[in-house]
Here is the input.
Amino acid sequence: MFVTFPLNYFVYSLNDFGDIQADSENKRKGNFLFGAKEDEPTLQRAVWLSTAIIILFGISFYWLAGWWMIPLFSSIIIVNFIYNLEPFRIKTRPPLELFIQTGYILTGVFSVVLNELEMLPWQTIVYLTFFCFQAHLAGEIMDIDPDQAANKGPLQCSLADFGARCLLWSY
Here is the structure.
């Protein structure tokens, strides 16, 4: 439940806020399935609200599961801010924008800690890492034209469409 609503709301509100310019020209965006097309004040309010919700959930999970939740939730917040917002905005710096997708693996760590399970085997983490790369590249390929028009600069723009597709197929 946590990953479905508050975490996704947090991740995508930051992503939409960070992509206002690129998304404004993207025909695929604006239907709330592939990304919001809203004005900056609306998206900024969404970022603040989603951050507050994540912090409240972090406090609740700290109370339920202990001190491990503090570094875990801090990591979730930091990774998303570094990826989406200035001065870092890793999403515009290839190939860093591809590697930071491994932040999604934190959801597995969250589940392990919360449910007091054994840590995932390293093979699972490697598989999930490649899955994150593949999913990210697929999204980048869909948005290659609007991203290039907005000078967003992700990996697929650097590799061009054919190179990005070859990298995706190699997974």
In short: The radius of gyration is 17 Å. The mean pLDDT is 82. The chain has one domain: 3-170. Residues 3-170 form one domain.
